[in-house]
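User: Here's a protein and a ligand (nicotinamide-adenine-dinucleotide). What would the complex look like?
Assistant: Let me lay out the input and then the predicted complex.
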Amino acid sequence: MTSRIRFLMCAPNHYDVDYVINPWMEGNIHKSSRERAVEQWHKLHETIKEYAIVDLVTPEKGWPDMVFTANAGLVLGNNVVLSRFLHKERQGEEPYFQKWFEENGYTVHLLPQDLPFEGAGDALLDREGRWLWAGYGFRSELDSHPYLAKWLDVEVLSLRLIDDRFYHLDTCFCPLSNGYLLYYPPAFDSYSNRLIEMRVAPEKRIVVLEPDAVNFACNAVNVDHIVIMNKISEKLKAQIAEVGFQVIETPLTEFLKAGGAAKCLTLRSTEPLREELHGNVTVESRVLCMKGHLLDAGLINRALDLIVDNGGSFQVLNFDLGEQRQSTSAAEVKVSAPSHEVMEEIISQLIELGAVDLPEDERDAQLEPVTIAGVAPDDFYVSTIYPTEVRINGKWVRVEKQRMDVPIAITETSYGPTAMCKMLRELVLGDQVVVDVQGLRTIRKPESREQRSAQEFSFMSSGVSSERRVELIVEQVAWELRKIRDSGGKVVVTAGPVVIHTGGGQHLAQLIREGYVQALLGGNAIAVHDMEQSLMGTSLGVDMKRGVAVRGGHRHHLKLINTVRRHGSIAKTVEAGVIKSGVMYECVKNNVPFILAGSIRDDGPLPDTQMDLIKAQTEYAQQLQGVEMVLMLSSMLHSIGVGNMTPAGVRMVCVDINPAVVTKLSDRGSIESIGVVTDVGLFLSLLVQQLDQLTSPYTTML
Ligand SMILES: NC(=O)c1ccc[n+]([C@@H]2O[C@H](COP(=O)([O-])OP(=O)(O)OC[C@H]3O[C@@H](n4cnc5c(N)ncnc54)[C@H](O)[C@@H]3O)[C@@H](O)[C@H]2O)c1
């Protein structure tokens, strides 16, 4: 024995795999050999005794996992935070460990009964004593971390575990002497990896790869320059040796069957204590109130998943279940996050989800001035598609020009403050911009069970839609188009050139002629290929009737562009009688405005193509004012652009052959979006057929 370092161990007299509480135990019930386990444990015990003092706690019958003393508690100086096991299979160990600590003169701190924390399995001190790394995600709750900071007076850095094979922090993370760290990064979420990288210099981080990680190379006991573990690859061993450590391998295969190895079998009871450093924890908690059809619309599940997926944790404090089908439910949920930054992200996503009321948030929104025109303050709140209100001087003010992904600017007027979604470039000096997530709420109609099932029916995100499903959606869209037209409403179409290449041009032209379209948004190409077809019968040089490439046809569209340029505009070319049919012809003849936004791919361009993109965006936004439905036809570029400008409540139908494009556009979390994965030419042909059959929207109701 060479140092004053002490460990606590427990002989494996009653050890066995009796139940399954982690993936390692699966298939291993009663499969470990007692004899071999005893032999392996004694070898580990003897090895550690060469470098440290080992104390023993008496094994108790019926508690097979007591052998894993790392989970007895977390010791620092004379204080110990006793474990609160998550699984009832281990909760019976708690009094035995408590007794041992009390008999050995420790001050024992007890966490609330229902707050899981699994001791040094999930809490590892930096070997220099600078801070405590604390894990959460599987066995320990994030809410236990503030207690550790308070009782042990130490800075706590919370790390979220995301791979259930590495269910305790000590299975994938091992601080070593001199500030080194042995760890398996994929076991942590990205926020935690960033935190590790911020605290541990690159030359001190020893990354373990999966083959070593599953041999529990990180579950090691470190005493000064000695590292004791189950098994290690030659490569990793050499890497560790290079920075001054000596690895001692001692087989612990029988304990691996229960998901533990060297570190799990020991509890270090003398930890470095740095008197000059003090407690600190960045964990933040807030109580949120959620209201709506929480259960039948699946809102509560989505909210709780969102909290966990973003690195937070939750506790449902109250749940008031609406009794009738039409009544709403209310829940009070305590949300905890490892930092203010993560909490803000969670809250803004919950606001987006729409069910959240912030009861304690009877505070005004935080505003910061614009100090450079066109630049928002760093922490600006990023808007969503949902109607939003901002609390200013105690009053809720509705945000105007709602759209997603922009700041909200507050302006004082003689009528009081106004709030408006502004593009970054529109911000001027003197604008006050909403920062953080305080004093904000979104207004959303509660989704009912019926709406939710309609949405599920409509979504095509799972892949290529079956023909029958496409037909059903076409029926639904035709019905809506007819309703909007007959009530004098507004439909905007965004379209790419594929509409023309697939033979859909004539159908789109018919929709315009028959008054179903109130504005067309696209790029140079849709107009070029539409007029090429009208004038020369080809689209991108392909004969549209015979489906074959025409000799010299690749130049057709350039000639068309030249012709339009000669006339000065599309309208003038139509009026001159040069263009006699097609999408652009119908737009001109029926006074349907069209905006063609330029792009780097454009040939020509046509005189009508707006190459000033800022102007093009503004003109798109103007055409989208008051729109009820947007039909997005095979243009990823223009459809996504339009999707971002469109507030919730507008019905969006996105037709594209690529499921990824459809999913991106339809999965806005809003009920009004429908995605259709199909050929756009086929879709348009079915749509006009369906509309021809609908004499009046009321006939189908009879
Ligand atoms: N000659 C030109 O001037 C020229 C030519 C092409 C594109 N452009 C410009 O480039 C920009 C981007 O063009 P874009 O909108 O065509 O490209 P895009 O890549 O943004 O969108 C094309 C979309 O069509 C989908 N698609 C392909 N085949 C389909 C089918 N059979 N049925 C349904 N969907 C199908 C694709 O999955 C894709 O999402 C536009 O501004 C356009 O005007 C200019």
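Summary: The longest helix spans residues 467-486.
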